[in-house]
Amino acid sequence: MLSEFEIIRRFFTRPAPSAVLGVGDDAALLRVAPGMELAVSTDMLVAGRHFFPDADPGKLGHKALAVNLSDMAAMGAKPRWATLSLALPEADEKWLESFAGGFMALAAAHGVELVGGDTTRGPLNICVQVMGEVPEGQALRRSGAKPGDDVWVSGRLGDAALALAHMQHRIVLEPHDVADCLKALHAPEPRVALGLALRGVAHSAIDVSDGLAADLGHILECSGVAAVVEIAAVPRSAALERHFGEETARQALLAGGDDYELCFTADVDQRSAIEKIGRDTGVAVTCVGRIARGSGLAVTGSDGKPLELRRTGFDHFR
Ligand code: ADP
Ligand code: MG
Question: Which fold, 142-300?
Answer without folding.
Answer: Phosphoribosyl-aminoimidazole Synthetase; Chain A, domain 2 (3.90.650)
